[in-house]
Amino acid sequence: MLSVLIMASPAAAHSGTGLPGGLAAGFTHPFSGFDHMLAMVAVGLWGAFLGRPLIVLLPVIFPAVMAIGGALGIAGVPLPPVELGIALSVLVLGAMIAGAVRPPVWLACAIVAVFAIFHGYAHGTELPSAADPIGYSLGFVLATGLLHVAGIGVGMVKDRPGGTVIVRGAGALIAACGLWFLGQAL
Questions:
Q1: Residues whose CB is less than 8 angstroms from the CB of residue 86 and which lie 6 or more positions away in sequence, other chains included
Q2: In a domain, 7, yes or no
């Protein structure tokens, strides 16, 4: 994990130019940025840690609101520094898991939705250069959903002996990566 963090650059998935487009390119895109991958896994992991109804709500809200962020990016609506928002998403979501924070349902949904805007915006600003923006969008939404499911899968160990420690430890590692991304974004 540490070697991947050292070699990774923040927001590597958000290159902004020359996207080939299409379903396959969109599907592989979220895996090209460690920051995006960690945030997506963290959404599923936090949802699994919190249980019902958030195990379902968080992974549904994120891609839905990410699409809104994408539309804002396509439209060129100005936002605060997007890479800062993405770095904060990794840090905050990891910290929520590590700290076993159990906010009310509405607040957990709001936190995830705010960060989804930034992730979607980063993708939206890239879409106009893609040859097939619809296929590309479908691909990255599908990959995002699979990363959420992976996080849920890891989070399911919480019910096993020592599982809560494993899940919270994973959250701490995610938060540490988020701190590093934040340093790079500033």
A1: 10, 11, 14, 35, 36, 39, 115, 118, 119, 122, 181, 185
A2: no
